[in-house]
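Input/output pair, single chain:
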Amino acid sequence: MFQGIENKVVVITGASSGLGEATARHLAERGATVVLGARRRDRIDALAGELMSKGHRAKAVQTDVTDRKQVQNLVDTAVQEFGRIDVMLNNAGLMPLAPLERLKIDEWDRMIDVNIKGVLYGIAAALPHMKAQRSGHIINVSSVYGHVVDPAPRSIAPPSSRSARCLKDCARKSNPITSGPLSSRPAQSAPNSSITSARRTSRPGQRSSSARSRLARIRLPARSPSR
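Output:
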C-alpha cells in the first residue's frame, strides 16, 4: 500500500493525535511530505518539529475543519510550499455517544460540522488541484459505526460516520470502479484520482484513534484531450 509514497505530498486533518498523528509519522518515515492540520497548534507544531529534526519534510497549519476557509488554506499552503497535493486524508472526526432522547443537539451540530461538512470541505479544497495535476487520492476516514449499524441508537454518530462512505458511493455511481491497492506509480505517469473510504475504531469523545482500515478504491479516469 505504501510503495511509491516517497516524495508524495500528503495533507492530513486531525493530525494532532491518534490515527492522524500515527499516519503522519508512518508516512514521513517512508519519505512522504506531510502537511499537518489540526486545531491544537502546539501539538502539530511539536510533531512537525520532531519529524523535521529527523530529516523528514513536514509543515504544520492550524486548522479547524468546520471552517471552510481554514481547510482551503491548509490545502493551498501545501501546494504553495511543496508544489502539489498527492493525498488528502480527511481524518478529523469526533463521536460523542448519548441516547437520542437526551437531545444533545449541540453535539449533533458539532458532529455534522466535523464529520460531514469537514470532509466535504476537504474534498472541495483538494479536488481542483488534483484535477489540474491530473492525479491524486482522497481518503475519507469514518468510525466503525459507518460500517456496522448499532441496534441501540446512540445519537447521530452512525449516520455522520456513514457519510464518508456515502460520498464514496455517490462517486461510484458516476465513475468506473476498480479494486486493489492505491497506485504505486509516480503521480506524473498516473493521470487519475481516487476517492477511498477507510474504517477506524474509536472511543467515545475522541477525534481520532488508531485502527485497522478497509479500503475500497474508486478511480476517476482523466478526460480525453478531445473533450
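Residues 171-195, 199-227 have pLDDT under 50 and may be disordered. The first strand starts at residue 9 and ends at 13.
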